[in-house]
Amino acid sequence: MDEKKRKEDDWIDEISYSIGEQVEKGDNPEDSGKEKTHDDIDIKEEKKGEDLKEEKKEESNTEKGQQEVPVIAKEEEVRSINLDDMKLQEPEPGALESYLENAQEDTKKKKWSWKKKLLVGLCVLGLLIGGACLTAYFMLDKIQTERPEDIKKAETDLTPDELAQQKANLKPQEFNNVIEQKVVNILLIGEEAINDGVLGRSDSSMIATLNTVEKSIKLTSVMRDMYVTIPGYKNNKLNAAFHNGGGVLLAETIEQNFGIQIDGYVRVNFDAFEKIVDELGGVDIELTSDEAYYLNTTNYISKKKNRCVKEGLQTLNGNQALGYCRVRYKTASNGEANDFGRTYRQRTVLKAIFDKYKHQNVVNMVSIATDLLSYVKTSMTKSEMISYLTTAASFGSLDLETFRIPMDNTYDGQKIDGKSVLVIDFDANRKGLRDFIYAGIKDSDIKVVSGDMEDDRYFSYLWTD
Q1: Within its chain, how far is the Cα of 32 from the centroid?
Q2: Which CATH class is domain 148-280+360-461?
Q3: Of 3, 14, 340, 404, which is the most exposed, with the fewest CB atoms less than 10 Å away?
Q4: Coil, strand, or helix at residue 102?
């Protein structure tokens, strides 16, 4: 291959040399057979005179120490050269093909180099993704997983006949899987501990929703004083469901009464809530003058040293934020009072936590999440949590929409068995809740066929001893 290339280069050099010689002599093969006239002779003499002047000028420049500039043939003179009159050595057969083959090999090398770069880039990306997955897996390992069968349930308050009748009337919920897979509903439980050997009460219950059609994140407050049917027990306030059977019974109670699927739950007690807020460096909350005075003069803020809040926007630490969330006897900044004002405050604080966290840099996010997850208990598996977190991250915009049930004008405050409860219009609230959570998804657009229905995941645990 090298021998062919060398001969090729020799052939090109010969051509260049011959062209240069002819240009220097001023030969033009086309003029060789023509008779020269007097005009031609005069022109030639005139040209010689000009050439002599140029030579003298060049000699003068050389004497001054300037470098000689070689004379370059005019384009017209080069074009007039007849290559047929030159006796040049013909290139060997296949020289051109060899040249093209070499060029193709060079091109292939360049292409391979580009492919190698892409391959290296993909490998680096794979390592980063793998590292992120390992980090997430390590972080989620800190969460305490809660199995339904491990929950200690309270004894039923129904008679054997009442329990048998309830079992006959209550049926497992069936959910349209085609619809439900577009929405993820996670029940968030704030637990108030009660030292009775069983479970505390759910001081707050909210449904966090990931709507993959709208690419939105939503938060619904579920008021604890609603009078509801609790499977395996007498009708009672919603928060009694958690005390009797933990997150499993609370999730099933919401499914039975409101017809939405709960995909899992997360529960946090008051101590953990304070630590979460403190890990974030506090949350920014605006207080009314009545709220500030009430918090400073009662024990809702449990530590006296923290009873120093003021009217207006300020950063509350964990102990102060928890006290603010629990206030129910003062009107909230949105004009709502009693338990409605309290649930408004809870949504406000959770939204503030969410906003504070999402504006952290990646390093801080990982560090904070690693610390916070150890305070959480959940029914979800690691793979489910990673899937849900990935879904939320894919939405891009992380604004939080909020809602509450019961809705305004859909309830009535009553006394039942000596308890103050909210008797609600279930039809109106079911529709309102579904319209909010499942926005963008129409039931009528999806034809339900055999195999599309998903079983109630919690129902089977309710009747076990």
Answers
A1: 82
A2: alpha beta
A3: 3
A4: helix
